[in-house]
């Protein structure tokens, strides 16, 4: 492994900011001492380990666990497990599930439920969160090869974790709003990877009583709402996704960088391997170009589609976070955005 890299470029960081919830530097000793006495899970505070370098994953064959699942889901829905829909079309809240005890068959059925409902919220997962990083990595390996973030903080010894951490830094917030009107941005996770994640897990260790919700859009329904003519045009298009801006910003912020920037070619419309649904795979964060279109044409297509997502409240679901909840998303058919809870309270 090559050593981690810090760029010597002294120029000003680009206006695009990834600072909110995604710091680039180790926490100060003073802050660490203060927060470690308050947090229930100090082992999940973000670290930036030296000497790590992540080469791009080679393409691998993926066998979706949902294809093995019993469609009736008898192993998942047993022992008093209850399901409540978030909306009629997407999102399900499960209570009574103990993630740490699920059998392989139940994990497969959970995968199928995620494919069908796009989002599954699992309440009261304290025991799963207490199992620790090693167990959680092994749990998620059931759902595929794990991604490794190129610039952000992770759990010590486990680069597969992406830690979202608010430290109450008001200066950081003020800097962000010098250039931005809102903290929200519709995004796919690491869509620049050759094989972006299909299944994504988020666990909440601490959160405010209100606020901080996550809004999720169903990109298969966004596709279905388009006219057949527009669908046919999108079906022919491919886009270049890139991590260039992310890497450049981290370097100029004097942060640790663990990977070279990558450009990847993906179809604008993807076909889901389990449900067969067609969904739009485009965002405003990682897209470098749409192949074959001029810049203004590509911008027009992207802005039109993102406007439909922003206005499409009838194909969105809002996840309200509760302490010790775990949420699993289908990364192939959803876009999401987070809503910052407050600007003066660490979480």
From TrEMBL:
Keywords from the UniProt entry: Dioxygenase, Iron, Metal-binding, Oxidoreductase
- Where does this protein have coiled-coil stretches? none
Look up keyword Electron transport and say if it applies. Answer: no
Q: Which cofactor does it need?
A: Fe(2+)
Gene Ontology, cellular component aspect: cytoplasm
GO molecular function terms here? 2-oxoglutarate-dependent dioxygenase activity; metal ion binding
What Pfam families does the database record attribute to this sequence?
TauD
Annotated TauD/TfdA-like domain ranges read: 85-335
Q: Which family does it belong to?
A: Belongs to the TfdA dioxygenase family.
Q: What is this protein called?
A: Alpha-ketoglutarate-dependent sulfonate dioxygenase
């Amino acid at each position: 492994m090559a050593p981690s890299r810090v760029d010597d470029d002294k120029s000003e960081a680009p206006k695009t900011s990834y600072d909110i919830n995604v710091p680039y530097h180790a926490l100060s000793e003073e802050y660490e001492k203060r927060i470690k006495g308050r947090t229930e899970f100090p082992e999940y505070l973000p670290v930036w380990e030296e000497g790590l370098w992540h080469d791009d994953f080679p393409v691998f064959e993926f066998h979706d666990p949902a294809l093995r699942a019993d469609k009736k889901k008898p192993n998942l829905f047993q022992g008093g497990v209850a399901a409540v829909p978030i909306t009629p079309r997407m999102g399900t809240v499960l209570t009574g599930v103990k993630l740490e005890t699920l059998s392989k068959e139940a994990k497969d059925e959970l995968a199928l439920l995620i494919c069908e409902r796009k989002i599954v919220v699992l309440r009261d997962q304290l025991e799963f969160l207490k199992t620790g990083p090693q167990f959680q990595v092994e749990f998620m390996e059931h759902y595929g090869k794990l991604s490794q973030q190129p610039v952000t903080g992770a759990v010590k010894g486990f680069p597969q974790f992406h830690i979202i951490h608010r430290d109450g830094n008001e200066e950081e917030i003020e800097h962000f709003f010098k250039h931005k009107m809102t903290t929200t941005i519709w995004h796919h996770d690491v869509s620049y990877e050759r094989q972006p994640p299909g299944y994504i897990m988020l666990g909440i260790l601490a959160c405010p009583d209100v606020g901080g919700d996550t809004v999720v859009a169903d990109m298969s329904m966004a596709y279905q709402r388009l006219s057949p003519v527009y669908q046919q045009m999108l079906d022919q298009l491919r886009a270049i996704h890139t991590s260039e801006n992310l890497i450049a910003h981290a370097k100029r912020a004097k942060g640790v960088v663990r990977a070279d920037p990558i450009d990847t070619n993906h179809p604008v419309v993807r076909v889901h391997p389990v449900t067969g649904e067609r969904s739009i795979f485009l965002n405003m964060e990682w897209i470098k170009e749409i192949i074959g279109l001029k810049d203004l044409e590509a911008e027009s297509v992207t802005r039109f589609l993102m406007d439909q997502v922003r206005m499409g409240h009838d194909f969105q679901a809002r996840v309200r976070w509760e302490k010790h909840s775990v949420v699993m998303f289908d990364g192939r058919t959803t876009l999401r955005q987070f809503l910052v809870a407050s600007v003066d309270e660490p979480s």
